[in-house]
Structure formats: C-alpha cells, structure tokens
Amino acid sequence: MRRNSQSTAAETARVVDDKLTETTLDTIRRIASELRPAALELGLVQGLEWQVLQFEHRSGIPVQLECIVEEVDLDNGQATAVFRILQEALTNILRHAEATRVKIALRQEAGEFR
Question: How far, in whole angstroms, is CA 20 from its chain's centroid?
Fold first, then answer.
C-alpha cells in the first residue's frame, strides 16, 4: 500500500509540474506579445511615423522623418528593437538636447537597414 501511495504522489507531482510549466509558458507568451507595440501591427515605417507624431504632439518639437527604404525585412523582434531605439532616442532628445527640431533618416543600403 505504501508503494501505491508513493506512485500516486509522484504522479500528482508530475501533473502539477506539467501544469505549472504550461501556465508559465502561456504567461511568457502573453507578456512577450504585449511588449510588441501595437503601432507595429501596421508595419515598421507606419509604427515609426506614429511614434514621431506622438512625440511631436507631446513635445511641440517638429520632426522630419525620412524613410528611404524599399521593403523592410525584419522579424518581429528586430522591428520592435528599431521602434524602441527610436522611442528612446526621442525621449533623450526631449530630456537632454534642448532641440528645436529633429531629423530622422532611415535607409536601406546594400540590403541592410540603417
């Protein structure tokens, strides 16, 4: 009887571990999807344009955004990184640069996004 209760306890622990793992992975997936800015759902260039408009509205500083790209072929993580870099750059400009205007140029050269 003791062996039976030990195997039942081991089975219960395995089920709990599996459920905990599944719940943790679901939570990680949800958080990761929430970290991707909704503005990027329209595409990277459109997301950057939206961010620039938000900055102009919030700061009153005009921004000239030049996107000289044919087609941006970045995965979700890369596109999110570009968006966050622009977002941080604009925040730093607002806090530290005492800028009266901003110019941003994005280019695609030799198949690379710059």
Answer: 26
Q: What is the mean pLDDT of residues 28-40?
A: 75
Instruction: Measure Cα distances from 93 to 31, 53, 79, 104 in Å.
Output: 29, 15, 21, 12
Cα separation, 62 vs 65, whole angstroms: 10
| Long-range contacts of 9-18, Cβ-Cβ distance < 8 Å, separation of 24 or more | none
Q: If you compute the radius of gyration of the chain from its CA atoms, what whole number of angstroms results?
A: 23
- pLDDT band at residue 69 using 50, 70 and 90 as cut-offs: confident
Residue carrying the six token digits 């950057």: 48
